[in-house]
Design brief:
binds adenosine monophosphate, 4-stranded antiparallel sheet, 486 residues, 4-stranded parallel sheet, alpha/beta, 3 domains, single chain, Rossmann fold, binds zinc ion
Amino acid sequence: MNLYDSLHRELRRFEPGRPGSPGRVTVYGCGPTVYDYAHIGNFRTFIVYDLLHRHLRRRGHEVEFVVNFTDVDDKTIDGAAAAGRSLAEHTGPFIEAFLEDAGTLGFLPVSHHPRATEFIPAMVEFVGRLMDAGHAYRGADGSVYYSVATFDDYGKLSGKGGEEDSRRSRIDAAGFAKADPRDFALWKAAQPSDREVGAVWDSPWGAGRPGWHLECSVMVTSLLGDTVDIHVGGEDLLFPHHENEIAQSEAASGRPFARFWMHVKHLKVDDRKMSKSLGNFHTVRELVEEGHDPAAIRWVLLSAHYRSELNFTAGGLADGTEAVQRLLDFRRRMTEEVEGPGGPAAGAATTAAGKLAGRARRHLDAFDRAMDEDLNVPRALASVWGLVRDGNAALDASGGVSAEDREAALAALAEMDGRLGVLNLAAKTRDVDADTERRIREMVEARDRARKARDFAVADRLRAELEAQGVRLEDTPAGTRWKRVR
Ligand code: AMP
Ligand code: ZN
């Protein structure tokens, strides 16, 4: 498997780095700051985590996947203060909401969702280690700062923040508590607003709270060790957040912090940056309340390559809804003809028996290889549509499809969907129960009989009745097909 590593700025072959347990992969994704509902931009990034998780598993790895909650920082403290609540009272409901939205979008459960506030003692200990090693100092304001100048590799991830930047902006540092403008807070001395919401902990450097960068470094090392296989986040986190995580962690342990760095490009909405003032700031729950299908939302957020531009629009959602429906229809058709009364008998294999099975396996193989190439979803989707096309062609051909072919086609589809994760999600909201399905089939058959009898008034009435129930008919040379539309 090849992944694009932001540190080396190239595609690199990924192998897990644990000598003792070669199949085990550790991943850390920077999670939501829980001061508000996560928006669909955040969820573009989080869906890439889920895709990576699913594909690593498909490739046989035992994956330890950690996604944190940033539940103490400036925004959560300001939010709690504005709402007149304690920090925990303010962040708790947004953590719940995130987990609910993650369920709505069909995320695999991750191994741990640590909250920063659960790791304060480990953070204090970590700062102590950096102090002892001469990488940190107490500033004039009582906060503890990381001394960037003590870490030679500073800037290796982002190319930013070197000596040049420091010299250029040194003048700005005059009057500040820091020795160097590049330095950043590891431990922030308590402010009145921190005390107001209960965001204050004791430390050898006085009461205060951890800095955001420190939080992630400590959750990574506490849960996954000094070196994590893959560290992932949105592109905005590359600098300074991830640069600072590297500086702290590598200075503390003397080991490489992450073997691979992945960054997800930001989502745009209607061609613009998302913002509350532009009114294009959507949450998952709002979209679902407006009647959008979670599977379609998931499809849209997945469908572009994670390092490419993705623009979220109403048209894109409509296309996503249709794409998911096509897959559902294909699965139903393939399944129905296995089980359905009208399907060909199991023994009615054609001369081409086994041909579809062979093709299905090739499509699945191409899908897997596309995912191995830095999670190339657009290329993988071409294989999905190749399978649907070949499968439908085989079903349309006279003579029927052999049981082996149908099973192979369904198995390939299921494996692909093991990564995409849309079919079962869509089935929850769109598929119909067995009774409804029987009733729809009876109406479709009655309409077919009416058409044969040239009783078009009855046929049209039945079509309209079905349409009103959200069932659309399609007349094909192979007979009438139906699908569920919203
Ligand atoms: P935050 O809650 O702000 O800490 O962000 C959580 C995650 O969402 C981080 O990995 C961010 O980089 C990512 N993120 C924020 N905005 C967007 C966006 N518009 N598109 C994709 N990812 C985003
Ligand atoms: Zn982080």
